[in-house]
What we know:
InterPro entries: 6-hairpin_glycosidase_sf, 6hp_glycosidase-like_sf, Glyco_hydro_65_C, Glyco_hydro_65_M, HAD-like_sf, HAD_sf, PGP-like_dom2
CATH topology of the largest domain: Glycosyltransferase
Radius of gyration: 35 Å
Number of helices: 36
CATH architecture of the largest domain: Alpha/alpha barrel
Pfam families: Glyco_hydro_65C (PF03633), Glyco_hydro_65m (PF03632)
Oligomer: single chain
Largest sheet: 13 strands, antiparallel
GO molecular function: hydrolase activity, hydrolyzing O-glycosyl compounds
Mean pLDDT: 85
Protein name: Glycosyl hydrolase
Low-confidence stretches: 173-218, 294-360, 536-541
Amino acid sequence: MNPLLARDYEVPKKPIFRLEGRTVVQSTEASAFMPNSITDSVMYSTNGHLGLRHLSEVERVGFKTEVLMNGIYHEEPTDTWEFKGIPRTNQVGASICTVDFDCMLDGESGTLSSIPHRELNLDDGAYRSKCSDVMSADNGVIFDTNYMRTVALSDLSAWGAQVCYTDFRLSDIGSPVSVGSVSNAGLDNGVMSSSAPHSFSMDSMSDRAQQTHQSLTIDRPQESLNYRIELVVLISINQECWDVVHEGMDRICQSSLTSDSAVTTFTEVSCVVNYGDRYNLLQAEVQSTPWARDPESDTTSPFLRDLYNVNASGSRDGPSSYSNKEGKVHGRSDRHGRDTSAFRRPDTWNYHAFHSPNKAQRSYVIKKRFMLTLTPERVPDSVVLTFRACHKRAVTEQRLRALPTVEEMIADQRAALELFWKTFDADVKLQDDLSPSRSSLPFVYNAFRMFMVSHGLEGGLSRSGLSAAGDGLLFNLSEYIYYGLYYLLTQPEACLLLLKSVYHMLPQSRKYARVLAMNRGAVFPLKTISGVHSTHPANVSNARFHVNAEIGFLIALYDDASENIPAEDRLLLLELMMESARIWPQCGEWQDDHTVFRLDNIAGTDEYNSNASGNFYVNISARRHISSAFSFLDRQQGHLTEEQLNSVFASLGMTRHEMAELQAVGNGIVVPQRHERLGVYMVHDNFDTLLDWGNDRARHPLHLNYHPIHIYRRKLIDVPEVLLGMLLYPDEFDQRDFRQNFEYYLPLCTFDSPESLFVMVHALCRARSSFSQPMPLLRSLANIDLDNIVYSAEGGLHFSAIATTLPGLIFGCGGVRLSHKGLQVNPILPARVERYSFTIKWRGAVLRVLVDYVNITYDLLSGASLRFIHGARGERIHLHTGFGHCPKITHLAIPRTRLSQVAQFDGVVLLSDCLFDNLLEYSYRSWYKTLETLFDTYRVLHNRPIPPLTPEEFIEKVVYQCEDGEISFSGIGHILQRRGVHLELGTPEDAEIVETRYGLANAKVAEMTEMVLMTPPPVNPGLFSLLKCLVENGVALAVVSYSRTLKQLLASNPQLTRLFVASIDGEEAHDWKIKGQPHLDLYIRAAEKIHVDTSRCLVISHHLDRGFNAKEMSRFRMFIDVEDPFVSSRFPSSPYPTLTPEESQETGRYNPVVCRLKLSQIPSTIDELEDLVDGRSV
């Protein structure tokens, strides 16, 4: 890719989250340095209908949740002028309310003493947060909290949360005492419960809590160790969006001020105090406080609506108060025998809210609070605050059924997830993973997210999946193609729900077609909220109809992938297919004597190329759309009656004449041909005439940093439309097409969107097969949200990235093709990948594919029978559970085939110093300048001469340095010690000015990087030609270096870089504790990364004549020592190590194990290299 144009998606070394079993846990090491918005997005809860965005605890023990609801929000024009064609709009009304939980002691919120432990359980869908050693303002009380939140699946409008306060500890006169009890806060089915108490001592406190306790404790007399605990539940509703009326917190009605939407919220709040084997159900008081509008502004506000005329008991004009009249005491007095039914009135206390929402925002606030007294004699085991809510669209007088309990919500989710995980598998194990399960996490997490939102798919899937308000709540139908592909692979029934959500947009889409002067058909919007096109006029210079074609593609593929489709669904899909396809005759015109149908001025899916005619993706999509529509119609005739078919066409008003015209248009659409000179398909007619980007580093995303005209005039792409068309319709292209088009478009791609990463992963694997390197792109795609790579956590999750991660693995590495011909699987094992696995649902069966170094394994996990095609040769495989006299075959392991066409070896590992002429001279000059800077300082400070570094000393101490273990720059250490300078090793993070050996090494890297940028070292032409020949013959190549300048060297030579499938530089060598020379660890690891046995691997290196062990070197096929003029002109070569007769007999190898090669004798062909290895030429 082009480093000046491509966006950088660097995945950090240290993950923000880790996977423990099937639980996503926030890393405590990373949490101190990241914004809480990352956790809020990643660990939100949703069932596709409700989205619960948790606002993480920062300093106080308060829990705040924003409730978003699908289908209730709408769009509001924001243009100041009367523009009704395509107005600019904003999302309004998605946030139903926010719900706060707080625990206050004597009017002050508890303060956190450490970062909470936060986790999301992917087995039961619940989010949990534990705050340890929470302290009161005077530090007289310390306790723990366990918070849990979940959504319901049996009733998508319901959710619940629970806070359990446990382990209360009081202190007197600056010392804690053992008066409390500790609850294990057991999580039986996800709900907290209390356990028997035990004594508390200072040892049970965390170190940080002890320090804070000792520094903040205020001496209090024993008689004043009484605390008033107030547990508050607060609901806030934005009155700028909603008009509110309520009859207590149990039922709240709110009506939109800008639409006819209405919501009724039912809640149930309880607070239970546990004392040993008894518990008390506390009374509560409810208060409501509406925001007081400015009367003058109210009279002119266009959003003011008095929808409810209520009396004082529910007035919006002033605060009202309600009290529950029943306070229940269950079966006992307190532990000391006193009656606990007495309840001190809350209004006699000095209550201060932990925040003032009406001062910060215009909100209607409803509070419910519970009170209890905490004394040394009366300390509860636990206090459990439970909140349940259900949000119904429209005004409803009463609930139709009782709210599910929190236990029931978790049980429902656990049961649904158990069935899902039973037949789902997606796992990747990389050889260079520093953290366990680092590569598995995004696949498991993303699958969980897509499964949860699937329950509300019929209402549509927004860009952020209800993880945040704002633009992320738009339905981006151009992303539905990726959602649909994901669900076709994992949950075909969910793909049908997604298509139904599009079907519900038909009325609005038909109206939109009329706006575009089309008298029939429906045009689906790119982005919408309520079915109406939502965009800005600047982005619609050309019409966009590719969404219609993508809907048709999904319908046809769903029909191929599913076994049993009910008749009513077939009718629905047929109507959707035909209504979306019939627009194409109205989008173009006949030319060349009615032989060619041209689709001009229609833009594709790439925003950066939306201002030109002859779009490749539009033409191929439209042609295949029409073809698929008629094929789909033919297949339905075997499932639907003629009467049913006629009813569909009658309702559409579609005549035989129109059908014939549509078919003729489909035959007349001509996909643009390959460019005569370049041999690739052009994005549009004028793409090859555009200007190159130039030498300036692009600022991303481009559409936010450059004028549209500046972008349109440049030869660049975001979503590679040509490659996307080849992904969706692979049967129209051959391997040469994939290879040439990928190589052409890769350096032109900006990678400004997750979709571009997915398309490029697929194209890379198809173009380069086993020699591809898809994992850097796939890792970036998979971790966009989990590692906040593009710093967009405030806007919620990117569901386009979530949905394309697994298809990137399946279509890319797995080589899966889906079509009416059936399922095809052609897996590869890319470099750096130890193993990977995934599952596919196809025609009622579930197939698991496992790929490792040895085998490709297929397992039939469910279903009675599955036929598919394996490998490039098209071997047909039938897995089944047995039939007739045939025994079952549900498991099949196929050995991976060797790709190399060379008899002597399968792979080659090269030291980077060999690839470039005079690279050691660059290294010497860099070290010379770096050390001279240090020596000048010492010369001045110590007033003594220090000799500079000489080439001979550099060769002796650095080039031929021998490391006992990991890289420690021992040669530089010896050079410094000779001059009386003693420096510690330091760490790789040391800055260039830090006087450590790593600090010097970092300064040297910076110096050499600048030299390489100014004057790139020339690539050895002989080796370059040989390497190209090796790749053409299926030999895997890896390049290695002990230096951290390797990345810069490769970046400056893209033609050389693409030859290698793996690399190791000094940074990776340090991370994996690879030993320095003369150890062979660097070469051994490189061979592992390219999946080549060392006995069939050549090593091309430098300076192998000192310190190396012949027996260790005999593990490789051969070492080739290429002449280096910088060294050979100053030092004579020493004899190479040789095997003793005993070692030869033990290893089965014979001398020589190392072959010297002069620069003038570098082989130019495979034959010459094989002769060199065989010993027939030297």
